[in-house]
Specification:
single chain; nine-stranded mixed β-sheet; alpha/beta; Rossmann fold; about 500 residues; 2 domains; globular; UDP-N-acetylmuramoyl-L-alanine:D-glutamate ligase
Length: about 500
């Protein structure tokens, strides 16, 4: 691990929690219906989605704030909402994540929301509910005052522009001037093709399409496009431009120079929220005084984690730390880890494009049947995670005489197996919380189950994973071993 990497990890682990970032912009509620498609409608040539569950999460500028909190920082959020149920759901989600919302309710305008219909890892349809007309002068004054009140306590400001009516020319000018006067960096995620609107921001972070629109130059000639982008830096008083280039990474454009950091994602499931993750990560890096050349490398790693997930899912600090430390080897005594560190390690594997396999059980008195299942499970992907019941959990399931072997010893034995990449202990009756936390690609159980009786099967299928049932080895079970040791017969 080089010294720059050590410095970045130190900042992420110990200093980001002391930073507060203001996000002002277009907040949204992202809604999802998750299901499967197995037939076409007789009414029209369209697929029928068999809905399994519905979820929602903060989106737009609110997702930037969620990324900041996930990365360990504090976030203040300012934007418009309606006076409706979606506003209530959005406020509740932000409050549960400890985001400090200062959302201004506006009569006669709905809370902006996007409803996505998902089958496996494919988006089938999106329905938007929004009204982009201007609000009243009084509404904008309330919005600006909410932001101006908290700017002095912040380490960075993000203008998250989705062109839904929040970031007018006046709002941008006032917020940028207040922050820059105090020496606070301002980062902009733009939707306007006229970058004059963002004059004097520290950096504007367009994607390739947005830079094309602003310059009027197609991306077939990146050199010419970058040259025009460099001209914007001096023309509009930016410190630099930060351009996201999808699979080509991130480029910074300064006065007469540019640098590009290559992308790190190897397996892309969903790009929604990737730009939000980039700007949140950059904001924290700049808030800590990190050089922009290093900051874009960190942002690339964070974006690689997010686009390997399905849906609008913010990055988390442990995932980023795991990905930044991916050159560290894991020994058998390091395979048994906490749930928190497991999420970081899964983040590392996902950034490498690895396929995650999950199984669970008590694994009391390891026998050949267990070994067969674990070896078969490992063949289903690249990394195998084994979740084992704690001693208390085993007692609840199997009775007061079990387990025969304690949880630490059971975990240590499993960790010594070459087929196993990580072991985690859970105290609940089922591993459903862990399954939701790591979102495995393959869920494996023994052949004594059916898919309908496997805990988490419907969830794994809903995000594009699958369930694998492994045939049992006849004549081997822990109950039989315990009975034999006690001199009893097993019927």
């Amino acid at each position: 691990m080089n010294r720059t990497q050590e410095r970045v990890i130190e900042l992420v682990e110990h200093h980001w929690e002391n930073r507060c970032v203001l996000v002002i912009g277009d907040v949204m509620l992202d809604k999802y219906v998750w299901g499967n498609v197995d037939r076409i409608s007789p009414e029209a040539p369209v697929p029928i989605v068999h809905g399994l569950r519905a979820t929602h999460c903060p989106g737009g500028a609110a997702n930037v704030a969620m990324n900041l909190v996930g990365l360990g920082a504090r976030a203040m959020l300012v934007g418009f909402v309606g006076k409706d149920e979606d506003a209530n759901a959005l406020n509740a989600a932000l409050a549960s994540a400890a985001v400090g919302p200062s959302l201004v309710p506006v009569e006669g305008f709905p809370t902006t929301s996007k409803m996505r219909i998902m089958s496996s890892n494919q988006q089938m349809l999106r329905v938007d509910f929004e009204e982009v007309a201007s609000r009243s002068d009084a509404d904008y004054e309330r919005l600006m005052q909410q932001a101006r009140d908290v700017i002095p306590a912040c380490s960075a400001v993000v203008l998250s522009d989705y062109a839904k009516g929040v970031l007018t020319d006046k709002v941008c000018a006032v917020i940028i001037e207040d922050a820059r006067t105090l020496g606070i960096p301002v980062l902009v995620d733009p939707k306007s093709s006229n970058f004059e609107k963002y004059r004097n921001a520290t950096t504007v972070c367009p994607n390739l399409k947005e830079l094309e629109a602003a310059t009027g130059e197609a991306s077939r000639d990146l050199g010419k496009l970058f040259k025009l982008g460099e001209g914007f830096v001096e023309q509009y008083g930016f410190d630099f431009l930060t351009v996201t280039l999808a699979e080509k990474g991130i480029a910074i454009l300064g006065k007469g120079k540019h640098k590009r950091a290559p992308a790190v994602a190897q397996q892309v499931f969903d790009v929604s929220g990737g730009g939000d993750t980039v700007i949140a990560t950059l904001a924290l890096c700049l808030a800590c005084g990190l050089e922009i050349e290093t900051a874009i490398e960190v942002a690339n790693v964070a974006a690689g984690i997010v686009v390997s997930k399905v849906g609008t899912v913010p990055v988390e600090r442990n995932e980023l730390l795991g990905a930044l430390s991916q050159d560290v080897g894991w020994h058998s005594d390091e395979k048994t880890i906490s749930r928190e560190h497991l999420r970081a390690r899964v983040g590392t594997w996902r950034a490498e494009g690895k396929r995650i396999v999950f199984t669970n059980g008590c694994y009391d008195l390891l026998h050949v049947g267990h070994i067969n299942l674990l070896e078969r499970a490992r063949q289903q992907g690249d990394k195998l995670i084994v979740a084992i019941n704690s001693d208390d959990s085993v007692k609840r399931l199997k009775g007061p005489a079990r387990p025969v072997v304690g949880e630490r010893e059971r975990a240590r034995v499993l960790a010594a197996l070459s087929a196993v990449d990580a072991v985690v202990i859970f105290n609940e009756s089922t591993p459903l919380e862990i399954i939701h936390a790591i979102r495995p690609d393959v869920l494996v159980k023994g052949g004594d189950y059916t898919e309908e009786t496997v805990v988490g099967a419907a969830d794994v299928r809903s995000w594009g994973g699958r369930v694998c049932l492994v045939s049992l080895v006849e004549g081997f079970s822990t109950s039989e071993l315990v009975a034999k040791a006690a001199g009893q017969s097993v019927s």
